[in-house]
Design brief:
Alpha-D-Glucose-1,6-Bisphosphate, Chain A, domain 4; elongated; alpha+beta
Length: 176
């Protein structure tokens, strides 16, 4: 009986420590990846200022070729909206809308993953020698609870790998 009591006390203590440490982890998570593309900013801009064009090089289309995507609003710029549904756990359901544009420099979007939360994403373009440095970023609020904050520790690895794949595909698309 004493052994069971000690195991239960140990489990409660472990859960308490994980919860307290989780609350000390950052609430905001930022993920960024970059690449230099051998093309001027205006050539790259056309591929990030349209969510229809984004779908051509997006890394998530490979996960689920049966993903259903719909578009609304203008075909480029502020108000361009993409909504998707997918049964694949790496894709899920969501909505992305272009919210701010600085021509040939920056495109910002708002992401809504339903129950999974919201985030802001962006593409920043800057001349780099004869090419363009493209930074793809994400800023997500992991919530007030410890579980979301623990998941935040893995966001860079999860999202970063997809961003690297997507940027390589963008580079291939623009340079070809």
């Amino acid at each position: 009986m004493r052994l069971i009591r000690n195991i239960l006390i140990g489990l409660v203590a472990l859960v308490a420590v994980l919860a307290v440490v989780g609350m000390l982890l950052p609430r905001q998570v930022v993920v960024e990846r970059d690449i230099v593309i051998d093309a001027p900013p205006e050539d790259v801009f056309a591929h990030v200022n349209s969510l229809q064009a984004f779908a051509e090089w997006s890394p998530w289309g490979d996960y689920d070729p049966d993903m259903v995507v719909t578009y609304s609003g203008p075909e480029t710029g502020v108000g361009n909206v993409m909504e998707w549904t997918s049964e694949h756990p790496n894709v899920g359901n969501g909505r992305q809308e272009i919210t701010h544009v600085v021509e040939n420099e920056r495109v910002m979007t708002a992401l809504d993953f339903g129950d999974m939360g919201t985030a802001d994403a962006w593409w920043q373009l800057a001349p780099d020698g004869d090419g363009t440095r493209v930074v793809w970023g994400l800023d997500a609020d992991m919530g007030g609870g410890p579980v979301g904050r623990w998941f935040g520790l893995m966001m860079d690895r999860w999202v970063g790998a997809d961003y690297e794949r997507g940027l390589a595909r963008l580079q291939e698309t623009v340079e070809s």
